[in-house]
Amino acid sequence: MVRFLLARPIAVTMVFVALMVFSLIAFTKLPVSLLPPIDVPQIVVKANYPNASPEAIEQNVLRPVRESLITLNGLEDMQSKAGSETGTVRLQFAYGTSMELAYIEVNEKIDRLTNSLPEELSRPQVIRINTNDIPMVRIQVVPKEGTDYAEVTKLAENVLKKRIEQLEGISLVDINGKQERVITVRPDKAVLAGLGMAEQDVINAITSGNRELPGISVKDGQYRYFLRLATRVDTPGDIENLPVSGPEGRAVPLGKVAEVQYRMEETMGYHLYGQRQGLVITVHKQAAAKMNELMEKVGESVGHFRQDYPQVDFAMTQDQSTLLNAGISNLQTSLLFGGLFAFGVLFIFMGNYRMPVIIGLSLPTSLVISFLVFQAAGISINVISLSGLALGLGMLIDNAIIVLDNITRKRQEGLPLFEACVQGVNEVMSALISSVLTTLAVFVPLVFLSGISGALFLDQAVSVAAILFVSLLVAFVLLPLLYRVFFSHKTWESNREDSRFFKAIVAWYKKGYQRVMANRKLSLALLLMLIPVFLLIGMALPTEGLPPIAKKDAVLEVDWNEPIGVAQNRDRIKEVMASLQGEFEHAEADVGVRQFLLFDGENSVQQATVYMDFKDQQSKERQTVQLEKMLGNTFPQATVEITDAPNAFDQLFASDIPYYEMRWKELESKRPVPAAEMGPWLEELPVTNWKKGPGLQEESAVLFRVDLEKLALYGIDIGALTGEIERLFGRYTIDEIRRFSEVTPIRLEGNKSDFMAILRSNHLEGKEDQRYALANFINVSYEDHYKYVTADKTGIYQSVSLTGAHPEEREGDLKEWGRGKNFSVSFAGQYFKDRENIRQLMGILGVAVLLLYFILAAQFESFVQPLIVIFTLPLGIGGALLMLWLTGTSLNVMSAIGLVVMLGIMVNDAILKIDTVNRLRERYALEHTGETSREILDRALFRAGEIRLKPILMTSITTILALLPVVFSAGLGADLQRPLVFSVIGGLTIGTMTALYFVPLAYWAVSSDKIRVKSQE
After folding, report:
1. Which of 30, 54, 388, 408 is 20 to 30 Å from the Cα of 162, by its Cα?
2. CB distance 25 to 372 below 8 Å
3. Tens-place pLDDT, residues 7-30
4. CB 922: neighbour CB atoms within 10 A?
5. Nearest CA to 761 among 749, 774, 771, 752?
């Protein structure tokens, strides 16, 4: 095949040119995003129930929702959490479930359930979680001094939102911090009482005066007209002119008995930019959109907003494309330095400038053609797929060096140029194919990891497979073609084959080889003893998800754990920002309840999230310590957590699941155990390191207990009492003014004094029209109650998180504790998920090793020789772990990827060396018929070491040198890549020595022909 293709250089060139053209077209159409569009198998159902307690939300809303959704296909777990005024049900599905169908099914079940839910409850919101739900940027919209906030809210809702949504590639624009104008009606109760009127008369006047006929038409001769009443109100002035009728038929204008005016609606949440109140617009992209291009369009739109609306300040924050740009920058750096160092190393080793030029042409060619595979496989350009390309580039250089070196060696043996190209490729073809397959055998099975990790590895596996197979195509066809073109008019000069530098290395290698093989048993034993030592080092390494990234931004999460209002919450956050003034470049805060459509976290007026972007990392570390200390001293009841600002990876993998949680259910009442009873029982827990779960956290509340006997005695209906309480303490909407898409509520406003004064100053009519104060029928008390009610598929539970080491060892004691109190005890948490992931990973790695063995057994036609390659892997891994330990680096996702890269290169070297030994033994058996099999084996091992010395050293050195700049770089991209670099450098340093000395030792050990070492000159 190679001979056939090389004999037709013009046709092959045209094919590659065509592939390049189509690949460039495909590249322009590939979506560019931060992460692959992964369907996270979760759906969240949110319910907002104003003025409802956690118990009421659990009983009236969440329990029916859970019972309705428990039969969903693929449902693995269900957790619900009811808080004050809000409740959520989180559904976890088996990975692989069609989330489109699951989303439709959940909505259908919610629609069927709507009629059985409380009337005042709006339809529960169903949120489907996707990686595209992570906003790519946040736009701050802050009104300037004197600007009407309600008008800015309308601007954001009706203009800015729609203008951004019109950009091609935008999927959703979400807004928080909205405040709308309402019309408030505040009756003057003294005047009403003097006129013998009541609040209900004012309410009746407004509802009567705001009627509109529903689509009645009248005929006038041959014409037909729509009929409308001219009694609809539009402004507070219209409402003030409405007549209010008293009991004797006397009517007065409503403005005489009530104050009517525009006001800002009471909100449950605020957004702050610095210390200024404003709105925030989060922008989400479509899966197929290109993030970089889209960010430019969004930036241009914000620039136009600044010109068109000078009364508003705009700013763009938390740009998530930074991580993508870091990935692209790393790929560009790898290409640049890979090419430069490959040129330098080849020139030093061979003294020939043509070889680096050939590799310089093959690298971008392989990369561009890989994008055609991306288009066919439906893979986007994202951080994950780019990291896969970066992994493949190192192995691509490896293949190119091996092929070129083999062709050069064939020319040195005296073959003509054409034959040297053909035989040079054919000789290493099967070994290179095996090396690619073994690399994929190690990497591809990771795709079968469950959850998001497996989905992320899919993009990486496809990108690695794409560039590796394309690199084989380039190495087998394009490289020999380029070699033939570059060397067609040049006679071979044997003295230019190797540089003096490389000849010195060869001499050094020969001496080392003779010493190692002279003490082969001892040398092999020492190398094998290193494996457990390296593994012990690996066990001492700390483990984490992503490597620590030097960030200058942080997030403050605070829960005041006090019954404060959202305005007080806002004022406290402003004080926090004021204390840090001048230390940060910008800060923003979401205070209280979030209005985002896609927000699936807890919503409480007592909570706040503050994002702070400091001037530098040192300033961040200094200020966050002081801030945590200040808040702890000033607000001892508050729960304060300060962490690094999460990037998209953190948000994707973030989990609020406790590490190890003990749950119990009360078997008789199936309700939460009262706090007074639960307190002494918790003191009897057989563990000391534990923390209360959400279902045990308490907060203060005011309880109104109605005296039913007095109500009956004075002839007052309970419905009248509850209706009056709702009007006084709730948000009572009288009616709405509708103008096209704009809706303005008309609200009844009560007294702003404390609730006891309100109860004393408001009355109900009883027998014989006698008026009685509400305080006569209501007993007020303060009481602590549970802040949340938690439940799963089987009902309500309470829990504690165990924080000590090895909590699983106390399961028996904890079950015994629950058994004595009639509790059903179970255990859950991240611990069990991690254990399942480790079990899966071990199984997958076992499959990978088996695949590796099968491929190598087929390549070598031997059941024993593949073991040589497999035993090189622990030594390479050990070198990587040693480097991580020496540099103080943890074992994380990036260092694990580095291990895979390093193993791919190591396996490549070992396979080629064993393949060379096998071929040389066959050839020497024919050429040296007078020698024994032991002497032939000796000769083959030594000569194979010489032949493979150059490509082994060149591939290792070029890879290490290409990665070294990352070690000395700074920034997000360098911080992410540094653990990968340390893994590769450490592994290849040990791995090079392994390929040079361990492989011949192991080959000797497993060979049936034991060799005798003799000097080979």
Report:
1. 30
2. no
3. 777 887 888 888 888 888 888 888
4. 12
5. 774
Task: Kindly state the DSSP code that residue 475 receives in the 8-state scheme.
Answer: I
Q: Residue 858 carries which side chain, given as an amino acid letter?
A: A
Q: How far apart are CA 180 and CA 943, in angstroms?
A: 84
Tens of pLDDT, residue by residue over 527-563, are 888 888 887 887 788 877 667 777 788 889 898 888 7
> Which positions ≥6 away from 406 have C-beta within 8 Å?
424, 425, 427, 428
Q: Do domains 1-31+324-435+451-489 and 502-547+872-1017 have the same CATH topology?
A: yes
Query: CA–CA separation, 552 vs 645, rounded Å?
Result: 9
Looking at residue 302, its pLDDT comes to: 93
Looking at residue 129, its amino acid is I
CA distances to 191, 612, 755, 776, 914 from 758, rounded to whole Å, are 17, 42, 5, 12, 91
Inter-residue contact 665 to 824 (CB < 8 Å): yes
Q: What distance in Å separates the CA atoms of residue 266 and residue 251, rounded to the nearest whole number?
A: 32
Residue with tokens 């020999």: 480
Digit-coded pLDDT (tens) for 609-653: 999 888 887 888 888 888 888 888 888 888 888 887 776 666 566
**Tokens coding 345:** 């190393």
| pLDDT surpasses 50 at 799 | yes
CA angle 435, 440, 442 (to 5 degrees): 100
| pTM score over 0.90 | no
| Alpha-carbon span 975 to 323, nearest angstrom | 11
Distance CA 488, CA 370 (A): 29
Beta strands in 562-618 (DSSP E): 584-592, 607-614
Which amino acid belongs to residue 792? Answer: D
Rounded to whole angstroms, the Cα distance separating 32 from 324 reads 9
C-beta separation of 194 from 618 below 8 A: no
Q: Taking a C-beta distance cutoff of 8 angstroms, is the pair 810, 827 a contact?
A: no
Express as a percent the part of the chain with pLDDT over 90. Answer: 10
Tell me which architecture the domain covering 502-547+872-1017 has in CATH. Answer: Up-down Bundle (1.20)
Question: Residue 767 and residue 264: Cα distance in Å, rounded?
Answer: 40
**If you average pLDDT over residues 164-176, what whole number do you get?**
89
CB of 1000 closer than 8 Å to CB of 971: no
The rounded distance, in Å, linking the Cα atoms of 170 and 282 is: 11
Q: Does domain 1-31+324-435+451-489 have CATH number 1.20.1640.10?
A: yes
Relative to beta strand 216-220, strand 269-273 is: unpaired
Residue spans of the domains in the chain: they are: 1-31+324-435+451-489, 36-131, 502-547+872-1017, 553-646
pLDDT in tens, 350-395: 666 777 788 778 878 888 888 888 888 878 887 777 767 766 766 6
Reported for 732-735, long-range contacts at CB under 8 A and 24+ positions apart, including other chains, are 734/185, 734/203, 734/206, 734/207, 735/206, 735/207, 735/210
The whole-angstrom separation of Cα 251 and Cα 982 is 87
Token code pair at residue 795: 């009902």
pLDDT tens, position by position, 276-294: 999 999 998 887 777 888 8
* Cα 815 to Cα 659, 671, 683, 812, 950, distances in angstroms: 18, 19, 15, 5, 65
The yes or no reply on domain 36-131 and CATH 3.40.50.2300 is no
Residue 611 CA to residue 608 CA, distance in Å, equals 10
84 sits in which H/E element: none
| Contact assessment for residue 415 and residue 483, using Cβ atoms and an 8 Å cutoff | no
Is the pLDDT at 943 greater than 60? The verdict is yes
Query: What's the CA gap between 292 and 285, in Å, rounded?
Result: 11
Place of tokens 């060979």: 1007
Torsion 111-112-113-118 (CA) sign: positive
Cα–Cα nearest to 358, from 436, 427, 350: 350
**Kind and range of the H or E run holding 556:** strand 553-559
**What's 553-646's CATH class?**
alpha beta
Element (H, E) at 973: helix 972-993
